[in-house]
Amino acid sequence: METFGKRFHEAVRKRGQLCVGVDPHAALLTRWGLTDDVAGLERFARTVVEALADRVAVVKPQSAFFERFGSRGIGILESTIRQFREAGALVLLDVKRGDIGSTMAAYAAAYLDPASPLCADAITVSPYLGVGSLQPAFDAAAANGGGVFVLALTSNPEGPSVQHAVGAGGKTVAQTVIDEISQLNKGVEPLGSIGLVVGATIGRTGHDLSEVNGPLLAPGLGAQGANASDLRAVFGESLHNVLPSYSREVLTAGPSVAGLRAAADRVQDDVRAALG
Length: 276
Fold this sequence. Notes:
With 276 residues, this protein is of the alpha/beta class. The chain has a single domain, classed as TIM Barrel, CATH 3.20.20.70. The protein has twelve helices and eight strands. The chain has an eight-stranded parallel barrel, surrounded by seven helices. α6 links the parallel β3 and β4. It is globular, with a radius of gyration of 18 Å. Belongs to the OMP decarboxylase family. Type 2 subfamily. It comes from Paractinoplanes rishiriensis.
């Protein structure tokens, strides 16, 4: 079984370093002329799959925007994940789960076990019950060729109060997370399967990402304020592992399939120019 790190490396080689967030919030559905209900959600998801599934390396559905419609919304999420994967896109399901023991193991089974209808290629998780609490997710990913993206330096303004806090050893909380993930990926070729989430809006923080050897998801681009040119300041010499993530910058070009494709191509060109 190929590891997620290897599949990720191959996907971005073929399709470019781009992730598109699939965030069907109420305002976006309205902008598309759709109703804010299950029917509108289904139409939205079907259109995004048609437009992007065969051309974007990674898509990132935000689970909450499907969950808000209950079981029928989750059913659409299951179908959307399946269709994206069948078309060759890697699906990073944005669920930000984090718990301990059997509960974390259950989350891992829900999203990283091929027997589950919600199985994705990778998920986002929160390490703030301790990186060790995420071990069931790491184990499930290793067993099934999946990936895990761990929150490290997020783009929300509240993040630094926790992530930049300094522990007894002199490291920030974020640097401790970064270093622990770096150890998990050490020596893996071509890339480890445990990634980090590092916001594109954070600027130079002095954190060292050079040893991560895993994919670095960079949300915050486009409508959230960051530009592709900001990536170099944040990631420095680790640019080759960065996965820039856009959502509204692409999705507001809908509901036209051609418009969505053109928007994705435009941000892809911006990313390519910025990353060299």
